[in-house]
Amino acid sequence: MATGAGDRGQLKVAVLVDRPPRGGTVGRDPHALVQSRATAQAVCTALRELGHRPVLLEATGNLLGRLKALAPDLVFNLATGLGQKKQQANVVAVLEVSGIPFTGSPLESHVLALHKPLAKMVFRHWGIPTPAFQVFQDPEQPLHPGLPFPLIVKPSSEGSSVGIGPEAVVGDERALRTAVARVLAEYGQSALVEQFIPGREFTVGVLGNDPPRVLPPEEIIFPAEEVQEAGSIYGYVMKERDRVERLCPPPLSAVQREEIEEMALLSFHALGCRDYARVDIRMDRAGVPFVLEVNTMPGLQPGYSELPRLAQACGLDYTALIGCLVEEALGRFRRVGSSALFRCTDRLASGVRPVPVVFLPGAGGSEVESLVRYPACD
Ligand SMILES: Nc1ncnc2c1ncn2[C@@H]1O[C@H](COP(=O)(O)OP(=O)(O)OP(=O)(O)O)[C@@H](O)[C@H]1O
Ligand SMILES: [Mg+2]
Predict the structure, then answer these.
(1) How does pLDDT run across 186-215, given as a tens digit for each residue?
(2) Minimum CA distance residue for ligand 1 atom 22
(3) The CATH homologous superfamily of the domain defined by 132-195
């Protein structure tokens, strides 16, 4: 079920990947290099199946010049910042300057999503529930009285659960100070201290634009031996070793599912995301959902990452998913309007029905527009 090159003809697609930092290390997430290579290979294969010509390109210091020299029709951006997470946004800034069409969100979405406290301020502004929080620049900073224990302490700007292990969940002031000091020293960035949300965890994919589609939520099921008193977390070791089980679709009432999907969609819009993203959500013990974060460059490694799996659950195989992202990006840059998009959505499983549900800020930030959501696979 691939979206072939069709009347677009063969495109030269630069598949942009991270360059491993000097010395072959990959900063704080050694697993990232393996994932990055496997993903690049899979994307190249899918692009060939779609009739395009992929060319691998590393995101180096002279990226702008090399892009101009290569002159691709499109950049398929997979550079997530192996050494430093903020490199993800730096690369997008270069892509925007180049004027060459590229896949994924614009610069401002990456900047917001990569800085979790900033993203949370935006969520709160739009009334999207997110755990109460405080940013610590110093371990001795007074704790806000509105933040009762247990709390979770995490680096403000990391991904892949880097810096998040069992010691991140703290039950008293002493443990809090120790965890904050560790984040400041080890990660050289502020510590985000959040209300600990103890219940079930979900990740939700959002795909496309005009309007974006919410893919079915996936529940993360923690292994029984990892269940902690406060509640389990999806920490670095668990993620790296792929030790959780996943349920898709998860057991949720229609109302709960709608609530989670709506939260994911609102979060996607609130950060101005494009093409695709993955939203992490947790419920409290009463079943009330809170958004933890939006991943503006979610993994695309087949057989490992969530987004390809969630797309598959909607009948969109890997090649079709990559084709969809290509079409979204090209459609936007060529101002094709929605026709390219609907060629993709037609390939989703039947049963897609439009439901007008949410009101959100429009592009200008002040007016309100009605959106239409397409929950696939009901
Ligand atoms: N406020 C919270 N309450 C409970 N658990 C939390 C909270 N914040 C984070 N966690 C746990 O820690 C995990 C990682 O947190 P988060 O998603 O913020 O980190 P990340 O490094 O950006 O992850 P990703 O791999 O999705 O990029 C979550 O999946 C969840 O299990
Ligand atoms: Mg996450």
Answers:
(1) 999 999 999 999 999 999 999 999 899 999
(2) 159
(3) ATP-grasp fold, A domain (3.30.1490.20)
**Angle, helices 31-49/318-333, rounded to nearest 10 degrees:** 80
Which H/E stretch holds residue 255? helix 254-270
- φ, ψ for residue 111, nearest 5 deg: -60, -45
pLDDT digits (tens, 9 = 90+) for 62-81: 999 999 999 999 999 999 88
Taking only the tens place, the pLDDT of each residue in 357-376 is 333 333 333 222 223 332 22
Residue list, ligand 1 pocket, CB within 6 Å: 131, 152, 154, 158-162, 164, 194, 196-197, 201, 233-234, 239, 280, 282, 292-293, 295
Q: Where are the domains of the chain?
A: 6-104, 132-195, 201-228+239-373
For residue 167, pLDDT over 70 is answered with yes
| Sign of the torsion angle spanned by Cα atoms 36, 41, 42, 44 | positive
Assign 177 to helix, strand or coil.
helix
- Concatenating the DSSP letter of every residue in 273-312 gives --SEEEEEEEE-TTS-EEEEEEESS----TTT-HHHHHHH
Q: Is 9 or 177 the better-scoring residue by pLDDT?
A: 177
Determine whether domain 6-104 maps to CATH 3.40.50.10140. Answer: no
- Distance, in Å, from the CA atom of 331 to the CA atom of 341, rounded to the nearest integer, reads 8
Structure tokens at 365: 């930030």
Look at strands 213-214 and 133-136 and give their pairing.
unpaired
Run of H or E including 270: helix 254-270
The domain made up of 201-228+239-373 is a member of CATH 3.30.1360.10: no
